[in-house]
UniProtKB/TrEMBL annotation:
Species this protein is from: Neodiprion lecontei (Redheaded pine sawfly)
Keyword Transmembrane attached: yes
Membership in a protein family: Belongs to the MTFP1 family.
Listed name of the protein: Mitochondrial fission process protein 1
Signal peptide from the UniProt entry: none
Amino acid sequence: MAKEMKEVDIFRDTYVRYLGYANEVGEAFRGIVAKNLVRFSYAVAIGYVIADSSCKAVVAYQQEPSPHKIKRVALSASDCLIWQGFASVVIPGFTINRICYSVQFAQKKFSGKKFQSPWISVAIGLISIPFIIHPIDALVENGMNLTYRKWVGHSPNIAPD
């Protein structure tokens, strides 16, 4: 039996995907690094989002000729840009930021010296990343299906007419 070859999406099926998590790492380290390093982590993550969106636009453009080619390109790129923007940058960055802030707030309530290390919030922030990824991805996917994709009549998983 020959196995079907699944097309590899470099931005979602390879280690390149981890560039989308750069801002989460930056947020985890926010309490101990310069603000410009946190900003740089966001630049990396946003660059990843733009690169993925551009790639999806090129793939849509290269598909068979269609009178609606430009519309398909715009919908593919915008869908990816919105999805990645929320799933890779906005929601995870905010989530890790609030987790680390909550840890730092709790640390202020403890008088013990061993609980005052800034590395505690960094460690908890980093440890949290793998646990928030899939729920956020599912939340954004469902949100996109119920809103944007419904409004524009586009689904990235269905081949165009």
